[in-house]
Design goal:
Blueprint (H helix, E strand, L loop, with lengths): L1 H8 L3 H13 L2 E6 L2 E6 L3
Helix pairs in contact: 1-2
Length: 44
Protein backbone atom coordinates (compact mmCIF):
# COMPACT_ATOMS: atom_id res chain seq x y z
CA UNK A 1 0.00 0.00 0.00
CA UNK A 2 2.94 2.33 0.60
CA UNK A 3 4.08 1.82 -2.99
CA UNK A 4 0.59 2.68 -4.23
CA UNK A 5 0.50 5.83 -2.10
CA UNK A 6 3.88 6.89 -3.50
CA UNK A 7 2.66 6.25 -7.05
CA UNK A 8 -0.41 8.41 -6.45
CA UNK A 9 1.70 11.23 -5.02
CA UNK A 10 3.92 11.03 -8.11
CA UNK A 11 0.72 11.16 -10.20
CA UNK A 12 1.54 7.74 -11.69
CA UNK A 13 -2.08 6.68 -11.68
CA UNK A 14 -1.53 3.75 -14.04
CA UNK A 15 0.92 2.21 -11.54
CA UNK A 16 -1.43 2.96 -8.62
CA UNK A 17 -4.29 1.24 -10.46
CA UNK A 18 -2.08 -1.75 -11.29
CA UNK A 19 -1.19 -2.14 -7.61
CA UNK A 20 -4.88 -1.90 -6.66
CA UNK A 21 -5.69 -4.61 -9.22
CA UNK A 22 -2.90 -6.84 -7.92
CA UNK A 23 -4.11 -6.51 -4.34
CA UNK A 24 -7.67 -7.16 -5.44
CA UNK A 25 -6.50 -10.40 -7.05
CA UNK A 26 -5.01 -11.34 -3.69
CA UNK A 27 -8.32 -10.69 -1.94
CA UNK A 28 -7.69 -7.19 -0.60
CA UNK A 29 -10.00 -4.34 -1.53
CA UNK A 30 -8.73 -0.75 -1.22
CA UNK A 31 -11.01 2.20 -0.66
CA UNK A 32 -9.71 5.76 -0.88
CA UNK A 33 -11.31 7.99 1.76
CA UNK A 34 -10.68 11.60 2.78
CA UNK A 35 -8.90 10.18 5.85
CA UNK A 36 -6.64 7.92 3.79
CA UNK A 37 -6.73 4.44 2.31
CA UNK A 38 -8.89 1.82 3.98
CA UNK A 39 -8.54 -1.85 3.13
CA UNK A 40 -10.68 -4.91 3.74
CA UNK A 41 -10.31 -8.57 2.88
CA UNK A 42 -12.80 -10.01 0.44
CA UNK A 43 -14.99 -12.67 1.92
CA UNK A 44 -14.70 -16.10 0.35
Amino acid sequence: MEERTAAKKARDFARADAIRDQLSGEGILLEDTPQGVRWVRKRA
